[in-house]
Amino acid sequence: MGCARPPGEIAVLGVSLICLQRMIGRAPIAAMALLLSLLFVPAVAQETTRSFDHDETNFPLDFVHARVACDSCHVQGVFRGTPTRCHQCHTLSGRIQASAPSPNHIRTTTDCEFCHRAGVWEQVTRVDHFAVTGSCQSCHNGVIATGKNPGHIQSSDNCDDCHRTFTWLGAVFDHSGISASCISCHNGVVATPKHPQHIQTTDTCEDCHRTISWVPVVRVDHNAVFGACSTCHNGVIAEGKDADHVVTTEECDVCHSTLNWTDVTEPSPRVSGRCTSCGVGLLPVRTIRIKEPPRQ
Fold first, then answer.
1. Domain map of the chain by residue range?
2. What is the DSSP letter of 291?
3. DSSP output for 9-76
């Protein structure tokens, strides 16, 4: 129509004013339609672009995802069915080939967000152990993650037998995994030792104690105890002589056995008092059954 815009000519939406004037004079209806289309189409396109907000979808864009090209995820312009789970994109076998886990990655589930942030893979600030499928030792080996220190007690490599997943401290020991003797740990350095008031014994703790608690002591293996009976059976540490006991200076084991108090052997010559003071039936608290020693 001879509407080429001369250099320097003022234009409206790319069409020169001279061209518009000629079109209005020759075909006013067509010119008006052209003018309206030039004004309306860009406005619609602009409005369409502005009205789309990716944050309102099932996959809001943040961190690195906000800076990648659209077709990196919407391959060949396909929008419907675009994956939203980490492992569906971060793989070497999917349609969308984003950065994949290294071959040396620890054994885990496919829930990347349990440990990683969306912005960067390398800075792992926490590990959700519920997402880890390998054994403790497969990570806590001193290379991938903190391992047992040189002063650790001798034990199996199943960390969760004693430790919790959020701290090493406050361990509750499963002694079934311990291969060393009690004293190798309960020495005052690694673990709680015998206190200063403990009776004189060997260092075989399990002769009297259980592994779940020091107290109560349900039995005492007297073969592991040193010293005289009265050092324990003094009424403070352990049961002592009651008020009705015969007067004697002997140690308990001269008359009693370690099994019970009631079965006694023939009293020692060093028993004080009259014979009738020990007679059967005269002691209201208990009856003493005297066993004679075997005759030669």
1. 11-51, 64-134, 136-176, 181-226, 234-296
2. E
3. --EETTEEHHHHHHHHHH-HHHHHHHHHHHHHHHHHHHHHHHH--GGGSSS---GGGGTS-HHHHSGG
- Is it true that the peptide bond before 7 is cis, omega within 30 degrees of 0? no
Residue type, 107: R
Q: Are 264 and 256 in contact (CB under 8 A)?
A: yes
What is the rounded CA–CA span in Å between residue 230 and residue 208? 18
- Asked whether residue 143 carries a pLDDT value surpassing 70, the answer given is yes
The answer, yes or no, to whether residue 177 has pLDDT greater than 80, is no
pLDDT of residue 15: 52
pLDDT band of 62, cuts 50, 70, 90: confident
Of 144, 175, 182, residue with least CA distance to 158: 175
Please give the model's pTM, rounded to 2 decimal places.
0.43
